[in-house]
Amino acid sequence: MAVNCSAFPKDLLESEWSGYREGAFAGALANKKGLMEEASGGTLFPGEIGELALEPQAKLLRVLETRSFAQIGDTKPVSVNGRIVAATNRNRLQEADAGHFQPDLYYRLAVFTVPVPPLNVRREDIEPLPGYFLHLYAAKLRKRLRGLAAASCATSPTTTGAATCGS
C-alpha cells in the first residue's frame, strides 16, 4: 500500500493512515479503514517520508512500537502486523540532527538502508530509461511503437542512439 507523504496535508494524512469512525468529524458519513489497516499482513510504503511533519512522524513511530493505533473517533486499538518500506530524497540522519525528523523514527526505519545515488552520479543508468518507459506506456495505452529517435535519447554523453534507447 503506497502513500505519498508530501501529497497530503498533515490532518488529512492522519485520517488516511488510521481511518475513521462514522461521525468522527463533519463529512465522516461511514466507517473507513485506513491505509495501515489495509496494509496489515503486507507492506506500507510511505514515499517521501522526509516531507512528513513531526507530529505524524511521532504517531507513525508509536504504531511501529506498539503495532496498534486507534482510528479517529474510536477508542479501541486496531492491531496491525506488516512491514514499512520508506523512501525519501533527503538525508534522514542529517534531518534528525537538525530537528526535522524524529531520531527514534529514523533508527526504527534504518534497519536496512538501500542508498541510491542520484542519476547524475549514475549516468550509465540513464540510457535504458526512455526505452523502458516507452514500452511501459505503450503497453498500458495499447499502442505499438517501434522506438525513439536518437535525438530523444540524447540524455547523456554515453547514449549511443535509438537502437539501444528504444529497444
TrEMBL record:
Annotated InterPro entries: P-loop_NTPase, Sigma_54_int
Lineage, broadest ranks: Bacteria, Pseudomonadati, Bacteroidota, Cytophagia, Cytophagales
Domain (Sigma-54 factor interaction): residue spans on this chain: 1-152
Coiled coil, from the record: none
Name of the protein in its database record: Sigma-54 factor interaction domain-containing protein
Keywords: ATP-binding, Nucleotide-binding
